[in-house]
Amino acid sequence: GAIDEGQFEASTVLNMTRWQALRYVVIPQVVKIVLPSIGNEVINLVKDSSLVYVIGLGDLLRAGNIASARDVTLVPLVLVGIIYLLLTLILTFLQKRIESAFSYYR
User: Fold this and answer.
1) pLDDT band, residue 19 (cuts 50/70/90)
2) Distance between CA atoms of 90 and 47, rounded to whole angstroms?
3) How many CA atoms lie within 13 A of 45 on its CB side?
4) Distance from C-alpha of 95 to C-alpha of 49, rounded to nearest angstrom
5) What is the reported pTM?
6) What span, in angstroms and rounded, lies between the C-alpha atoms of 48 and 50?
7) Which residue segment(s) compose the domain that 39 sits in?
8) Higher-pLDDT residue of 80, 5
9) CA 49 to chain centre
10) Rounded to an integer, what distance in angstroms lies between the CA atom of residue 67 and that of residue 63?
11) CA-CA distance, 23 to 86, in Å (whole number)?
């Protein structure tokens, strides 16, 4: 697997219980390995949720044309886009901070 069996053997030599070995040796290494993937999935989920919403609403373009014909501005759509951008930037920033906290070999 991703964690070498020698890690468990070393924890046994250090007289750790199985739960202590998991808590102090294995889980920190597993978190470091899977953290980038989980962070990317969270960011993709935020991005894809808006994409699926737009694709799912086939009448959105027609509603946009009707709204622009009535001289309605696109400010609400721009604000929603800005909110998604800010949300994605914040999640990306948090992911990088968490990854840097776990990158103890760099």
Assistant:
1) very high
2) 13
3) 7
4) 19
5) 0.50
6) 5
7) 5-102
8) 5
9) 13
10) 6
11) 35
- Sign for the CA dihedral angle at 88, 93, 98, 99 comes to positive
Q: pLDDT tens digits, residue range 25-37?
A: 888 888 888 888 8
Copy the structure tokens of residue 54.
């737009």
Sequence-distant (≥ 6) Cβ neighbours of residue 54 within 8 angstroms: 60
Q: Which of 10-14, 46-50, 54-58, 82-86 has the highest mean pLDDT?
A: 10-14
Structural domains counted in the chain: 1
- The CATH number of the domain where 39 resides is what? 1.10.3720.10
pLDDT one-digit tens code per residue, 69-84? 666 666 666 666 777 7
Measured between alpha carbons, how far is 97 from 47 in angstroms, rounded to an integer? 20
Amino acid at 62: R
